[in-house]
Structures are given as structure tokens and as C-alpha cells.
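Task: complex structure prediction.
Instruction: return C-alpha cells for all chains below.
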Amino acid sequence: MNPHLARLCQLAQQPSRRIIGLMSGTSLDGLDVALCRLEGSGPATRLTLVQFATVPYTDDVRTRIRRVFARAEVSLEELTLLNAWLGTLHGQLVLECLHSWGISPAEVDAVASHGQTVYHAPEHQHQRHEYPHNATLQLADGDHVAVRTGIITLSDFRQKHVAAGGEGAPLAVYGDYLLFSSSSEDRLLLNLGGIANFTYLPASLDAAAVFSTDVGPGNTLLDAFVRELYPEHSYDPDGRFAAAGTSNAELLQALLDHSFFAAELPKTTGPELFNPTYVRAAQQRSSTTALSPTDLLATLTEFSAEGITRAAQQAFGPEPRAAVYASGGGMHNPTLMAAIKRRLPRCRFSDTQHLGVAPDAKEAVLFAVLANETLAGSGVAMGSGRQRVPAVHMGKISLPS
Ligand SMILES: Nc1ncnc2c1ncn2[C@@H]1O[C@H](COP(=O)(O)OP(=O)(O)OP(=O)(O)O)[C@@H](O)[C@H]1O
Ligand SMILES: CC(=O)N[C@H]1[C@@H]2OC[C@@H](O2)[C@@H](O)[C@@H]1O[C@H](C)C(=O)O
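Output:
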């Protein structure tokens, strides 16, 4: 028997596993590396975050990813080269993190690697009728991570979700449900990444009512315009630029004038739609092309907050009431957080640290949970409910040799 397969069987039967979750999100700020200890599986899962680091990307890495990122047309050569290069880079960054933590690769059971989304194409967005299905593409091939680290690697989690009829995202729902459900309160797990999304976890613990949805832009538009208007910054530091401006009602209205906001939940989106071209078209339509930089950023901040609010109202009526636990980089932007809180006055706000998981680590942790389910679980069933995707095990398995 292939010794790696024997090792896989052994892993599946162990009472606990050490799994490194890797996430490289739409903000391209770096690679999140979360070393987790997972006991059990399914609703009995117990997670301990042992170590966490965000390894910042160099300008060179960002530039290479941006050459293909969210672009409908790219060089096929570039895409091919980047896929292998990013896989090796992610593997190397895992080794460097382990070295700095004083942990040897042999002490890790598996890597759960999300890779880098370069194009997300739900059917409602691509509208290519000759392809009547959803699609999404993540780079950083798992074989390269496995060979570089010597650790069994699970990767490319989103394809199975698409194959089972989903949009390939948000996958947060499965981990959120297993880790953060509580019978004491209705919870909204709000992640403010490049794209914002939330997971609803009812106090009833009814799996059929649980769902996760993208709601619109989080930081992606803010980051893009800050980079253009203030080249020395990559994001609006503590929301200061937006706080110095005034939101423009006409532009906000034009930004919200898209079928995505009325589409049924759950739904997904990405920077393929919400990008500077989208904003400029809205500025043209609303005759607001001459807006000052701070007024533009104030409006984009309100736009993100309003997208979240509309999705919450769509799900729960005009006055949503829940305990909101924030995560993702946008929670460090007080102007954005104030705009969200103002619109959802009946919600109570805190962050996932209060649930035992550092907010910046949450997405990487969730991929470790997905890998744990694939290795040792029996499948998180949500297909009968609002999420409308049958239970599937996600992630392809790469052996190190
Ligand atoms: N102090 C801060 N002030 C304002 N914004 C901040 C601050 N710190 C982080 N951010 C925002 O958070 C972003 C990074 O967020 P995060 O790492 O959650 O994104 P991501 O994981 O790439 O996104 P996604 O979840 O969409 O894949 C930064 O680009 C910036 O917009
Ligand atoms: C296609 C893709 O990579 N989507 C990401 C992105 O970043 C945030 C939002 O858009 C979410 O839908 C998803 O990531 C998280 C981790 C998810 O799947 O839950």
C-alpha cells in the first residue's frame, strides 16, 4: 500500500489532527497561515488556534497576481506560470512560518490550502448562456504545496461546491456552523474582507435555516481608489480619509442600482463586478465625476455598509436583530464599522475573538475545518435548507511524493 494512503487512513482515525489553514484573499495583502488543532469532527469539532501569521505579500507578488486577477482576458502563459509559482511560494511560506514557530513539518498532519481566487464567475455574473453553470478559479496548485512542504495537502475546495450546484462560495457557512453556533442567541458572522459576507446561525440550531451569502463590496473598492488617489497607501488607514468626506446621495443611489442587491439569497460576487469601472459608470450616470477624493471614499464606505444592510433586511425584515460577530480586515476601519452599526441599530456588535478565534485568522481557520471534515467527517448537510447545496466533502488531496 502507498504509505501516504496508510497515513491518510491513520489521520482520519486519530482523535485530533494538526492542520494548517491557508488563505489568500481578494485584498492581496498576504497569505494567512493558521496552525490549528482539531479534535473530533462534525458538530463535535473542537478547535484550538495554535499559531497564526499573515505573511505580507511583496509588491512583486501582488503585481504578478494583479496581471490576471479578476480580468476576463489574460495571458494563458502568465496564468500557467503563476499557478505553479504561487503553489511553491505558499509552500515555502508555510515552511518559514513553521521554522519561526519552532515546529517541524513532520508535526503537521495536513495543509488546507485555499489558493488565490483569480476569477469568480457565478452564472448571474458571467451571463454566458452557452455555459449554463457557475464557475470559479483558484491558483496555487496543491501538488506544489505538498511537494514543497512534504505535508499532505488538501486544496481547491471550491470546485466540489460548484459541481454540487453551488456558486463555490461562501464556504464559510460550514465552519461557522460547526464552530460558532449557539442555542443562546441568533448570530450573524460578518466577514469584512475585499468582499463582505455573512453567515446566519439561528439559536434554534436548525441546519436548514443556516446560510451564508456575499452581500457586496467590503474593502475592495475602498482599497482600489485609495491606491489610485493616495499612492503611498494601500487602504484607508483607520477610515480617516472617508471620515473627512461627506457621502454623496446621488452616487450612492447609482452604486446601489444593480440587480445583485435584489437577487435572492444566498448569492456571491467579486471584484469582477465591483471594481473601479463599476464606480466610474455610476459616477457618469449620477453626474458625480468631480467628487473630491474624501467624498468619493465616504460614499464607497456607505455603499459597503448599505450592501450589508440590504442583505440583512432581505433575510430578516426591515429591522434585523442578531448578535453580530465581525471578522476580516474591514473591522479595523472605524468609519465603516460606524456606518454599519448606524444602519443596524437593533444588532449587538462584537468580533469573533469573543468566540475564541482571532478575527484576522478566521477564514484560514475555516479551511482547516473543511479539510478536517474531508479527512474525518461525515459531511455537513445543509442541502435541504436555505443554502441549497447538498452535503459534499471538499478539497482535492495531494500527496507529497
Ligand atoms: N487599520 C485599518 N483601517 C482600515 N482598513 C483596514 C485596516 N486594517 C485592514 N484594513 C482593511 O482590510 C483589508 C484586508 O482584509 P482581509 O485580509 O480580511 O481581506 P481578504 O481576506 O483578502 O478578503 P476576502 O475575505 O474578500 O478574501 C485591507 O486591504 C484593508 O482594506
Ligand atoms: C470566490 C472567492 O474566493 N470568494 C471569497 C471572497 O472573499 C470573501 C467572499 O468573496 C467569499 O465569498 C469568499 O471567501 C470566503 C472565505 C468564503 O468562501 O466563505
